[in-house]
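Board notes (copied after class):
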Amino acid sequence: MENYRIAIEFKDGLKGVLDLSKLVMSHDAGVFTALRDQALFHQAYLDHGAVTWPGELDLAPDAMYDSIKKRHQYLHF
């Protein structure tokens, strides 16, 4: 993870990178403002398929999947 990007691989083999910088840095980031702290951002872990951070911040797996498919942000690793 660097520059608010997360590499993800789903069970069906779809792989991609999510760039969360717009979400984290926007003026209306809400609870995600906390992730501007790179130390906190790097504490991401998986919880029941959701990318999660301390403080009960998480991203829904289906939203991440759809985002990667729509933007064709595929990875080959």
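Comment from the instructor: The chain has one domain: 5-71. The CA atoms of residues 13 and 20 lie 21 Å apart.
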